[in-house]
UniProtKB/TrEMBL annotation:
Transmembrane segments: none annotated. Its cofactor is Mg(2+). InterPro entries: Rege-1_UBA-like (IPR040546), RNase_Zc3h12_NYN (IPR021869), ZC3H12/N4BP1_RNase_Reg (IPR051101), Znf_CCCH (IPR000571). The lineage of its organism: Eukaryota, Metazoa, Chordata, Craniata, Vertebrata. Residues 253-278 form the C3H1-type domain. Keywords: Endonuclease, Hydrolase, Magnesium, Metal-binding, Nuclease, Zinc, Zinc-finger. This is Putative ribonuclease ZC3H12B. GO terms for cellular component: cytoplasmic ribonucleoprotein granule; nucleus. PANTHER family: N4BP1-RELATED, RIBONUCLEASE ZC3H12B-RELATED. Belongs to the ZC3H12 family.
Amino acid sequence: YQAKMDFALKLGYAGDQIQAVLNKLGADALINDVLAELVRLGNKSESEGQGSASTTTSTLVPRGLCPKEIASPELSLEDEVVDNSDNLRPIVIDGSNVAMSHGNKEGFSCRGIQLAVDWFLEKGHKDITVFVPAWRKEQSRPDAPITDQEILRKLEKEKILVFTPSRRVQGRRVVCYDDRFIVKLAFDSDGIIVSNDNYRDLQNEKPEWKKFIEERLLMYSFVNDKFMPPDDPLGRHGPSLENFLRKRPVIPEHKKQPCPYGKKCTYGHKCKYYHPERANQPQRSVADELRISAKL
């Protein structure tokens, strides 16, 4: 009750108006329902003010939301969350994976990296790191074509892109494993990995890395020049994309229909209904389930 009261006070509503709405709807009412009722009262007072404007010199100004927020209270909540950059997780982008994906596996397209970085910048993220092997700075060759190579230099100057070390020893290139840089930084900073790679070799190195990759890997698709991550990164029963990118989920998740079979359900992770008893369990594959049962 107090949290709803404080939230509505921050939006500029009067205390007696908020209290009247909460008493009408009850303390268990959803915040969106409370906002909708406050908006309705604001519109009502606005129409009364316009009606009395002809008989009085002062106009009545409602203590409600601005017109944009009145039109969509849910949108105003989301906009407020997006503006809070302190709540956004750090982003670590697998540059080679993104560039090759944008180049249709035929070439290293640096423009794909720029599109992914721009998408996260528009979302309000400030802590973005892209890893690319240093040998990608070399001149493009027919067997390894690179397009828009100047983007790599530009992102490096902006302190967004980092080149992983590589050197030549007796004419042979020695390359450091860039995937380990990506997973290690994301794990240490409690961030998000942007890649279509599952990093199975690194999952087997450390148990904590395996759990982290399963819960923090953000896959994506390119539709021409549009970077598109999924709205449900961890499946239909997982968090939304907006909450997945945040340290503390703020936007309320849509209510899911519970499974009628409950704990007796035999469909496992393939069940399309919501299982509250499985909420904190990672979505393991069938192979992982067999390995665990074999150990037991």
